Amino acid sequence: MMEDHVTPRRVVIIGGGFAGLFAARALRHAPAAVTVVDRRAHHLFQPLLYQCASGILSEGQIAQPLRTVLRRHHNVNCLLAEATDVDPDARTVRARRPDGGLLELPYDDLIVAVGMRQSYFGHDEFAAHAPGMKTLDDALGIRRRIYQAFEMAETATDPRERRRWLTFALVGGGPTGVELAGQIREIAGHTLDREFRAVDSAEARVLLFEGSDAVLGAFGPRLAERAARTLRDLGVEIHLGTTVTGVDANGLTVRDGNGASTHFPAHTVLWTAGVEAPPIAAALARATGAEQDRAGRIAVEPDLTLPGYPDIRVTGDVMGLDRLPGLAEVAMQTGAYAGRAVRHSIEGRKKRPKPFKYVDLGSAAYICRGRAVVKAGPVHLSGRTGWLAWLLVHLTFLTGFRSRFGAVLSWAVVFASGSRRERAFTMPDRDPPPDPPAGRKPPATSS
To answer: Which of 59, 104, 179, 237 is catalytic?
Structure first.
């Protein structure tokens, strides 16, 4: 008598961020073959990218290999590839490997958790001079720009050139812009204090441009005002109601609410405003007829499925439902919900899942040592109390004991002394100077 074999349900999860990770965890004990496909081999704790960029935390403290995080999930396989298309009729995901090779991944259930990428609001040419901060590479590149700027100011002989190197402009007054602005001022005023001879690092200017009438507007007027006051006390110059109309290697041009344009000379411009969906979201929408909003978020049913496609669920930042914000907590909850819904379906439960309901656990923004703002429903915290709440929240969700332990040590060092242990940055190799013409000796150098 032949033994019957039951083929496990094939579940493909696109994206290894918060939503994808929590979906995979929810399927840990399900009789399913789960495939997590991501264009990067690590899970990134994105809310702390600015701390990697500013030299507080190392990349290893905010990023863990996906295979390590999911190593005990024996039904989960991780693939390094970028999803490029979905065929909902054939139930297949097409993906491209880093070497250009193509993969076809069949599925019975698909969970889309691809997140969002930086948006320049139709001005992609700004990206060459104003990098965003969505990936680990972005954070390490920004770290290089910040610390290199002080080094370049030290050797600049033209006073105007020195001022440009010591001017940092940030576009976007949301949590990332506020956090990064506060960190740069702390670097200038505390971390690099008395380290340079030709320049005074404390003289660095940090300019923060925001299109609305308040920084951290989503936190409410009270916390927004407290955050702005803390930033101004640090020395950050806040420009509200402004629109950036041009960015180049010499700075940025800004138009204010009265229509007047001003050019701000700066060698370091950082973009912390706006997000948009990656190309796979548009490909999925075309294939299924799903609607997208202006940023590319995909409209879903209350149970996170696509209309007419109960086997496809969209989660996290790329999901459009009830105008939920693009927060890590939303991604975690939607990912866990989608994973449980698939597991219940596999287990044969007949009862339809209840509509997804988001539980607001709050938002937080770290401004400087001992200063943060936290909003959790009716609870509004700021100052030292807000910082302690921020600390607890981020320790809770950091992945892995090593990450938590290392983060606590790094935060303790920064809080106690202002020094930062993760200031190392690399410079791109330069081509060697050309050989001198025949018959001429190269200039002598002193030893």
So the answer is: 179
Q: How far is CA 163 from the centre of its chain?
A: 29
Per the CB < 8 A criterion, the answer to whether 38 and 96 are in contact is no
Q: Which helix (H) or strand (E) holds 404?
A: helix 401-417
Whether 363 contacts 218, CB under 8 Å: yes
Residue whose token pair is 């370049």: 152
Distance, in Å, from the CA atom of 336 to the CA atom of 344, rounded to the nearest integer, reads: 12
In terms of Cα–Cα distance, which of 56, 31, 29 is closest to 366? Answer: 56
The Cα 253–Cα 263 span in angstroms is 4
pLDDT tens figures, 276-331:
999 999 999 999 999 999 999 999 999 999 999 999 999 999 999 999 999 999 99
- Mean pLDDT, rounded, for 16-24: 97
pTM: predicted TM-score of the whole model, two decimal places: 0.90
- Whether residue 82 lies in the annotated active site: no
Cα separation of 40 and 37, whole Å?
9
pLDDT in tens, 212-263: 999 999 999 999 999 999 999 999 999 999 999 999 999 999 999 999 999 9
